[in-house]
Amino acid sequence: MVKIGIIVANGTEDSELVVPVDIWNRAGIITKIISIHKKKNVLLANGIKVSCHETLDVENLSKYNAIYLPGGTKGVEQLSSTNTPKLINFLKGNTNSNVWFLSICAATSIYGKLGMLKGVKATCYPGYESSFRSSYVKQPVVVSKHFITANGPGNVFDFAFKVVEKLVSPAMAKKVANDMLYKGNK
């Protein structure tokens, strides 16, 4: 069973959290929303309050097949700060493992700043590619090695379905898309 740990902070982009979680749950993926704060409740960028499953300080990240970093400028600033050494150490320590690294929008810059994108193609929201310029690809969704990245909230559905395709199966991605009446790239 595929498990995705979703790391969030106050200011995380609403749709970049809610849409993937919904699609991944429909595909049978176990998702766990993890707050970087000492409390489980976070306030997303556009005012939605979310009660997370757990907090980062007590969560074991090694039990996940994938780690997802949603975007949102204020949330990303907190995810990449010195306040999250447990997250940063886990990411840097698992670059050569079978863990999938997922991100959208500004969050891909975290992987770039950590030097994780060497030899990996990735995308992000325009203006955040400076930390990984040589790896940057100007596309909506990019799959490269164990990374799946997307450039922004307008491509959140395609991103979420691509994750299902790669971590579960193309058939499951197509089924969930059809069940949702999704008419995009699937």
UniProtKB/TrEMBL annotation:
It comes from the Bacteria. InterPro entries: Class_I_gatase-like, DJ-1/PfpI, Prot/Nucl_acid_deglycase. Residues 3-165 form the DJ-1/PfpI domain. One of its GO terms (cellular component) is cytoplasm. This is 4-methyl-5(B-hydroxyethyl)-thiazole monophosphate biosynthesis protein.
